[in-house]
Here is the input.
Amino acid sequence: MNETPQVTPEILRQIAANASPIRDTDVEVLTEQLGRHPRGLVGIGARCACGNPAVTITYPRLPDGTPFPTLFYLSLPALVKRISRAESSGQMEAFNERLANDPDYRAAHERAHVSYIERRNLLEDVEHLADRSAGGMPDRVKCLHALAGYALAVGPGVCPAGDDALALVGWDTAVCHCQDPAEEGAE
Ligand SMILES: [Zn+2]
Here is the structure.
């Protein structure tokens, strides 16, 4: 087992505008959110209004050395559940139709893909991951969770499909839903 490298707050901010260092309670909260220990955690990409982690930032190599492409992972149960509902109600088809028919949207999705890899490379350019990002980028929308997590961490205007996913589920970053019993738990 190798240690996950330490990351400075400056690097975290370059990776994502809303990123912040790991706090004492984060690993415990994340373990509950994810149902497992967060491996390779280097920072929090975004937080709920209450301070709970909403998006993890994971080093591109897990502690056992496995290359790991998913830099941003949506962990906040209330939001995970809303996005799952949007996916299971067939919303992804609309995203993919738009990508197929709207050249500007497609170009922005491709730029989001490139930006994702550039951000990950600030941690380490893992050769095996070279052109892989997440969520179906650069040419598809395959996982709204991955895109919404990315958008929540980096802020609006970088990943339009993620911005749209957050808007679609009516996510307001100023409101905490962690104690809302109807929205607890991931699906
Ligand atoms: Zn909260």
